[in-house]
Amino acid sequence: MTDTYHSTDLSLTAQRSRLLKHFVIIGHVSTIEARDELNIMHPAGRVMELRDAGFIIPMVWEWQDDHNGRPHKIGRYHYFGARACLRKRLAEVLA
């Protein structure tokens, strides 16, 4: 991805922004991917905040190995867009 994904800005706003941009480009992210690639240590919290803001982000369980080859049952979050009232605002923010 881009250098902005490795941002040192750890504010909640910046983390939500990185996560949302990733969702728009890729469409999904796992807990491990969010931590490693987006520098978001608590992805479930950021997903909850995006859901509360009106974004549709279901989660499915899957097994994924960590960097040491150990399997973990983790969540994979899938982005299905925003509720209709947010679509225009989202387009403005991402423009």
Which helices and strands occur, and which strands form pairs?
Layout: H1 12-26, E1 28-30, H2 31-38, H3 43-52, E2 59-65, E3 71-78, H4 84-94
Antiparallel strand pairs: 1-3, 2-3
Protein name: Winged helix-turn-helix domain-containing protein
Domain Winged helix-turn-helix: 15-77
Pfam family, one: HTH_39
In short:
The protein is an alpha+beta fold.
Proportion in β-strands: 15-25%
Count of strand segments: 3
Architecture, according to CATH? Orthogonal Bundle
Number of helices: 4
Provide a descriptive summary of the structure in words.
There is one protein chain. This protein is an alpha+beta fold. The protein has a single domain (about 5-95), classed as Arc Repressor Mutant, subunit A (Orthogonal Bundle). About 45% of the residues lie in helices and about 20% in strands. It is built from four helices and three strands. It has helices spanning about 10-25, 30-40, 45-50, 85-95; strands at about 30, 60-65, 70-80. It has a three-stranded antiparallel β-sheet with strand order 1-3-2. The longest helix is centred in the N-terminal third of the chain and has 15 residues, at about 10-25. It is globular. The model has no long low-confidence stretch (mean pLDDT about 90).
Question: Any key phrases for this structure?
Answer:
3 strands, 46% helix, HTH_proteobacteria, 4 helices, 95 residues, alpha+beta, Arc Repressor Mutant, subunit A
